[in-house]
Each structure stands twice: as structure tokens, then as C-alpha cells.
Amino acid sequence: FPIDLDITTLNTITRDFMSDRYGGSAIACRPTISKEKLRRHGYNDFMYLNMRYHPHAPQVPGAPGLYFRPGKGRPRDWTENRVYRAFTRLSSGIWLKMGLYVLGFSEPLSIEEWRRNDMKTMRDVWSHKISKTVWGRGTRCSIKLRSQLGREPTQEEYEEALYSDNKFLDVNPQEVSNAFLLGEEVFSVWTMRCVGYDTEFQKTIAQQFAEWNPPPRPPKKTKNTTRVKKEEDDESKHGNAVTRERSSRVKQKTNNLKKRQ
């Protein structure tokens, strides 16, 4: 998409600024904007792409890109009547608005693509996060069951294990990476196509950021060693959605069986 790259277009901002002025988490890929903030500015279409998780995100305003999510996506995910105001993290704490984007469902990453050298950082980051975070529990559950059973678990077996108290934290990053390398787990892919830019919005945030004074940070809480440090581009909502989707399929199947009896 052709965009006039003037000096204002290339002005960067920080996530803390966007969170303070426009709302939402400063780490989520698709932050939820409060009703109060939404009434104030009217924007609820922000998407923030960290290149450690999305190495083929747009790096120049208007350029195409790719968006990744672990698990089997659905064609309607992220695509139904949505235009996203996309920002890419160029370096630590530095974000640049790329434009207004629509997403198109594509083929999942192949085993060969997952193995490529330019995907190493993505492999390492996702494998580590899936092995440690709450939202990675569903994937860890599948990996653990395959290891124990020596085969693909049934939906009933998966459901029973998922509703247990087991967090499956003994599944390590290498086991996660291997599951994707073997094609047992998949990464879904969406293409990103720029359809506009909204120059006035970019001018507004550039001016606001230049005049912005960061609010004082709250005092640090006592460190909890059982928690995993959160990073920019938190994926928790997606992981929970994958687990809910798989669980809902099992529940539907169970309900259908009950009706037949």
C-alpha cells in the first residue's frame, strides 16, 4: 500500500504511552480497551506485533506481513469484518505504526518452514513461553499425553487430562519445539495486507507522545518466583481461546451422544 513516508510517519512511540493514553495492557498483542477509554477516543482496533514472536511482521509502513498463532486456527479467526491498526516493535520499547491492516487465513507453517534458520528466534521464544505460561497448558497437555500413550490422544482423553489439576510444567521447551518439528502441533498463519494508514491519527499520537510525561510507576511487588516474567506481546488470550475451542468440541460431541441415548 503506497504511503508517503514523511518525518511524522516515521515517528515511533512506546507501549507505555499507548497504554496510558489509549488504554489496554502494555504487553498484549490485542489489548482490551476499557469502555471509558473507548468513549474518550473511539479506537478499539489496536494490534501490536513483537518481531520475536512474529519475525515476518511489517517493518515498513504499508508493507505486507505474516501473523502467527500456535494451534489450529479457523478461517474466520481475526478476519471477520476487522481492520487492525498495526504497530511493530522495531527494538526494545520502540514501536512504529505500520498502517491499517486486514488479515487473511493462510496455510499453517510447514515443518520445513519451522526449521528454517530465520525462524530460530521465533522457535526458541514460542517454545519457551508455551512450556511455562498458563496459556500454553493446553499444548503441554497434548504433548504429555502423546509421550505417555505413544499415540495421538482422543478428545475424551485430552478433556479428562485438561480438567485435572496437572499443569504439565514438566514439558520442557525442547519437547515443545520437537512437537512442532514433527508436525504434531501446528502454527497457524495469517497474511497481513495494508489497506490504509490514517495519517491524522499518526500525527496525533506523534504530537501527544512528544508532550507526554510518563506517570510514576507503582512500587515493585515482592518477587514471586513461581510466576513467569511477562513480555511485550503477551499471548494468553489466544492460548485460552485454543483450549476453550478444543474443549467446546468435546462438550458438543458429548451432548450429541446423550441425545441419542
TrEMBL record:
InterPro entries named in the record: DUF6697
All copies of domain DUF6697, residue ranges: 12-207
Lineage: Eukaryota, Fungi, Dikarya, Basidiomycota, Agaricomycotina
A Pfam family per the record: DUF6697
Sequence ranges of Basic residues compositional bias: 218-227, 249-261
Name of the protein described by the UniProt record: DUF6697 domain-containing protein
Region (Disordered): 210-261
Annotated Basic and acidic residues bias: 228-248
